[in-house]
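dumping the sequnces here before i forget
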Amino acid sequence: MILSRDAVYTVSEDVVAREIEGEIIIVPLMAGIGDLEDELYTLNETGKAIWNKLDGRRSLNDVIAELAAEYQAPSGEIERDVLGLVQELVQRRILLAV
Amino acid sequence: MRDADSPYVAKVNVARHRVFQKRTPVLGSLDLELTERCNNNCIHCFINLLEDDAARQRELVTTDTQRILEEAAALGALTVRFTGGEPLLRENFIELYLFARRLGLKVLLFTNARLITPELADLFARIPPLEKIEVTVYGMKPQSYEAVSRVPGSYEEFRRGVGLLLERKIPFVVKGALLPPNSEEIDSFEIWAATLPAMESPPAFSMFFDLRGRRDSASKNRLIESVRMTPDEGVAILRRHGHSYLKETREFCRKFTGPPGDQLFFCGAGHNACVDAYGMLQPCLLMRHPDMVYDLTRGSLKIALTSFFPRLREEVRATNSDYLARCALCFLAGLCEQCPAKSWAEHGTLDTPVEYLCRVAHAQARDLGLLREGELSWEITDWKERIKQI
Ligand code: SF4
Ligand code: SF4
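..and the predicted 3d for all of it:
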């Protein structure tokens, strides 16, 4: 799956994303997302920083640029992380292209 | 895609996740008793009212229940247990279920399964509860089941409900209530339970039945007392899966901290939230003493959990001399089911030893080698040694 950097992504209505004690917890709503009951998803620190920018308005390009500025990291590295996470969440039906 | 391969996303078992292990959220889970009414009328039931009881008029309206669910989610709760009575009797059940799931809460449903319809089973298949449904079973045949439920046709409906869950592949587990009419069916129940896809271990049984939590019926209490098994019969049942029972109980006993003294709430009461059908927050599912509950229609979960319950835990002390001479000095307090809620149900006070529970705990302790024949738990001084030796 090739992601377009101009695309905007938002959280799918098939999940509920919650923030509990600073952790992002993604709770499946519709069947087929969590294979087993009692298993939810959480994001690591990198995932969380990216997730917080995925607000259904910013394009992936915007997200990459903002994170590169905030973390003063090479944009190639940031781009790899953003595209990696978004690709994974799209495959899991957690994110959708707007 | 395997989760181990992902550098960003982890699938977590929430019970083991660090946020919940440290219990940092104000609230871990919420219990909601949606109604005290039930379509069964079980001989041992400590709570049920008839299906059309007038109490229905006093049950929380949808918006009030939704407000409680919202606050629970905001306080960090991840699971809500819908229980009763029979929670599926609530006409707004589906609305509340969807509301809870859309808040990102997992739903643990306790039911007798009689009201599971094809539509409801389809809903659970489409929007899964994320917790295994727990179905209590009262017998393996119409005669035994209905001798407990006292409702003709209830067995057939229970089987149909369970059949729908199986057909739709909705994970559920079964539990038994061991009573004289079904006591010969333990083996067939366990054999059947082992065929159910979501059963990972033998079914649990309830058997040391509580009296009516609202102290509303002396005749029903007499009936409950008459169907309780003897302590030795109960121990024999616990022993059926001897190895795992002994292992678990020994580990449990090693954590004993000794006699509780006069502090009555030394259990987990008040750490989680249990809301009755009318909006009163109880420190546990059983405790219905009017001074121990908090009116959620006039206050908030947060205040109850951070102020009202901690004060109760600290301030409610035993004064009954019998309790102070026995339970307060008893090293079996962690094993025994004696607690303020059961004392209230049996005696109308918070601190009266419940003889039946005392006999059950003594029988268990003898079986584990913690007590010898004729010994009384509160007289034992070398209890630390005994625990080390089991
Ligand atoms: S099904 Fe459960 S709530 Fe209903 S009467 Fe039986 S024990 Fe009580
Ligand atoms: S075993 Fe008896 S004395 Fe000990 S806590 Fe239970 S009721 Fe009280």
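Chain B has a mean pLDDT of 93.
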